[in-house]
Amino acid sequence: MKANKETKRLFVGGLGQAISETDLQIQFSRFGEVSDVEIITRKDDQGNPQKIFAYINIKVAEEDLKKCMSVLNKTKWKGGTLQIQLAKESFLHRLAQEREEAKSKKEKSTTGNTNVSEKMGGIDFQMKAVPGTEVPGHKNWVVSKFGRVLPVLHLKNQHKRKISFVICFSE
């Protein structure tokens, strides 16, 4: 029986200064198919490398991932001590995924069902509106910095001054 392989994003910290993408590709390809390696170097105020870490996308079976973690984590390698863990999902990847899901939902919607965008005049704000701009014809809605349409709540404080809040929902 063949193990189910999934693409995982790994955070690899504690890298030495002499590390290359090829080095990481070779080291991690023993456990799965490495599709992408991104090395990031954080520098101090004088421009000296302070922290070097990487993100690796690898298509790997669960048992091979566990083996990779147990074999490589906390080992000394090329001037550093590896610290390996599953990385948090990339913001850009998640944003692209959400836009793709929204696009497919929009295509699947039937004439009987209307989504929020259609209720507000069918305006598509992806990549067209500047953050903080009002939705035309709807003064109680604005566009967020990520292109989402958000409601604005208008309240008055005890001195009768108007206070406005943008309502944000997070998962």
UniProtKB/TrEMBL annotation:
Alphabetically ordered keywords of this record: Nucleus, Phosphoprotein, RNA-binding
Compartments (UniProt record): Nucleus, Nucleolus
Gene Ontology, cellular component aspect: nucleolus
Pfam family, any one: RRM_1
Gene Ontology molecular function: RNA binding
GO biological process per UniProt: protein localization to nucleolus
Region (Disordered): 98-118
Domain RRM intervals: 8-89
Compositional bias (Basic and acidic residues): 98-109
Listed SMART domains: RRM
Signal peptide: none
Predominant cellular place of this UniProt entry's protein: nucleus
InterPro entries in the record: NOP8_RRM, Nucleotide-bd_a/b_plait_sf, RBD_domain_sf, RRM_dom
Subunit structure: Interacts with the GTP form of RRAGA, RRAGC and RRAGD. Interacts with NIP7. Interacts with DDX18; the interaction is RNA-dependent. Interacts with DDX47; the interaction is RNA-dependent.
Purpose of the protein: Plays an essential role in the survival of diffuse-type gastric cancer cells. Acts as a nucleolar anchoring protein for DDX47. May be involved in regulation of gene expression at the post-transcriptional level or in ribosome biogenesis in cancer cells.
Protein's name in the database: Nucleolar protein 8
Protein species of origin: Marmota monax (Woodchuck)
Biological classification of the source: Eukaryota, Metazoa, Chordata, Craniata, Vertebrata
